[in-house]
C-alpha cells in the first residue's frame, strides 16, 4: 500500500496531533528553535529567552514526553538538545513559510 494512502491507527493519530500541539505554542517554538542548533541547560534557555526557570522546565518536560527533546546530566545540571530531526525539519519549514515574502 502506498504510504501516503495508508490508514492511520489511533496511536499514530494521537502522536501526530500531540506533535502539532507542541508546535502550536509560542514558548515551545522558541525553545525548540534554540535547541535546533545546540544543547542548553534550563538556566541558559531561561536566560536567553527571558523566561522563568519553572516555565522552561515545564515546557521541556512536555517536549521530553513527546520525545522531541532529550537531556544529559552533567553533575547537577541537565543539558537539553533536540531528539527528533523530523519535527525540527517541520519547525524549520514552518518558520521558512512564515518568513517568506
Automatic annotation (TrEMBL):
SUPFAM superfamilies: Winged helix' DNA-binding domain. Residues 8-101 form the HTH arsR-type domain. Keywords: DNA-binding, Transcription, Transcription regulation. Pfam families: HTH_5 (PF01022). InterPro entries: ArsR-like_HTH, HTH_ArsR_DNA-bd_dom, Metal_resp_trans_reg, WH-like_DNA-bd_sf, WH_DNA-bd_sf. This is HTH-type transcriptional repressor CzrA. It comes from Lysinibacillus piscis.
Amino acid at each position: 500500500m502506498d504510504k501516503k494512502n495508508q490508514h492511520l491507527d489511533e496511536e499514530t493519530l494521537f502522536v501526530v496531533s500531540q506533535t502539532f500541539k507542541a508546535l502550536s505554542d509560542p514558548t515551545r517554538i522558541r525553545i525548540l528553535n534554540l535547541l535546533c542548533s545546540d544543547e542548553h541547560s534550563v538556566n541558559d534557555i531561561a536566560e536567553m529567552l527571558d523566561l522563568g526557570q519553572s516555565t522552561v522546565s515545564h515546557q521541556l518536560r512536555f517536549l521530553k514526553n513527546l520525545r522531541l527533546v532529550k537531556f544529559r546530566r552533567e553533575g547537577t545540571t541537565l543539558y537539553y538538545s533536540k531528539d527528533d530531526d523530523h519535527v525540527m525539519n517541520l519547525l524549520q519549514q514552518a518558520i521558512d513559510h512564515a518568513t517568506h515574502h
